[in-house]
Amino acid sequence: MMRLDRFLSETSPLTRSLAKRALKNGEVTLNGEPIKQSATQIDTDNDVVVLNGERLALVGLRYIMLHKPVDVECNARRGLYPRAIDLIDLPKVERLQPVGRLDVDTTGLLLLTDDGQWSHRVTSPRHRCAKVYIAELAEPMEGAAAEWAIGQVADGLMLDGEESPTHPATLRLLSPTQAELTITEGRYHQVKRMFAALGNHVNSLHRSSIGDLVLDTNLAPGEWRELTADEIALF
Ligand code: URA
Q1: Which domain of life does the protein's organism represent (predicted)?
Q2: If you measure from the C-alpha of residue 21 to the centroid of ligand 1, how many angstroms do you get, rounded to a whole number?
Q3: From 14, 23, 82, 174, which residue has the greatest number of CB atoms within 10 Å?
C-alpha cells in the first residue's frame, strides 16, 4: 500500500507537490474513477492509476551497464561536464547512483543502480571484487624494469600520502606501453597513483571488467543497457 501522491511522484516525472496539484486538477483516475485525495492509500500491485490517459506502474530496482566515454563525470551534481546519468534515457534517472567512480578522463565499464545493497556488495573492500583496467603508459616498461614493476604491484605499493600499502594486485604488460592492472580496492585515483609510484604516467585509462562482469563489446562509448538477471546475480 502507498499514498496516492507518493505513488504518482514515484512513477511519473511529477514531484510530490505537482502530483497533489494534478490530483486537484482532476488529471488522475483510480480504477476508472476520478480521484482528488492525495492521502488515498492504494494497492500498488492491483489498483489502476491513470494520469492524463497514461497508466502508471512502479519501476523495480534498476541495474545499468554504461560504456562511459571521456569527458563525462560520475557526480550526481551538474558540473563542467555532462553526468553519466545524462546519457541514460530512463524515468527518474537521478535515482541511479554510480557503483564506484571513474575519473572524468577514464573510459569503460560503469555500473549504475538504485539498489544500495547490491552496490555495496560490488564496492565494499571486504568483498575484494577484482576490477580490471587497461592503461596506456607514457614510459615503455620492458625487461628487468617490467619484472620489477610486476613484483612491486604484487607485493603492494605505498601511495603518496597513504599509511598502508595497496593490496596485492596483478600487472600484465600487453605491450611495452600498454598494461592490464587488476586491483581489488577502489582508492582515490588508485590506478594512476600506482603507476606514478612506479615512476610512470597513465596517458589514458579504460575499465574493462568488474568481477566476472565484462563491458559488453556491443556498447559504443556513451551507450548503455540494463544488466541481465544472471549478471545482477554475479554480485
Ligand atoms: N583509478 C584511477 O586512477 N582512475 C579511475 O578512473 C579508476 C581507477
Answers
A1: Bacteria
A2: 45
A3: 23
Closest CA to 225 of 95, 62, 102, 73: 62
Percentage with pLDDT > 90 across the chain: 91
Which atom of ligand 1 is the closest one to the Cα of 106?
A: 6
Atom of ligand 1 nearest to the CA of 102: 6
86 classed as catalytic: no
Q: In whole angstroms, give the CA distance from residue 128 to residue 118.
A: 14
**Domain spans in the chain, listed from the N-terminal domain onward:** 2-55, 63-232
Q: Which triple of cell numbers denotes residue 135?
A: 592503461
Alpha helix stretches (DSSP H) within the chain: 4-11, 16-24, 116-123, 143-155, 190-197, 229-232
Span 30-67, pLDDT tens digits: 999 999 999 999 999 899 999 999 999 988 899 999 99
209 CB-side CA count, 13 A = 13
Q: Is residue 150 lining ligand 1, measured as CB closer than 6 Å?
A: no
Query: Tens of pLDDT along 106-125?
Result: 999 999 999 999 999 999 98
Per CATH, which fold does 63-232 belong to? Pseudouridine synthase (3.30.2350)
Tell me if 2-55 shares its fold with 63-232: no
Task: Check whether 2 has a pLDDT greater than 90.
Answer: yes
Question: Does 2-55 carry CATH code 3.40.630.30?
Answer: no
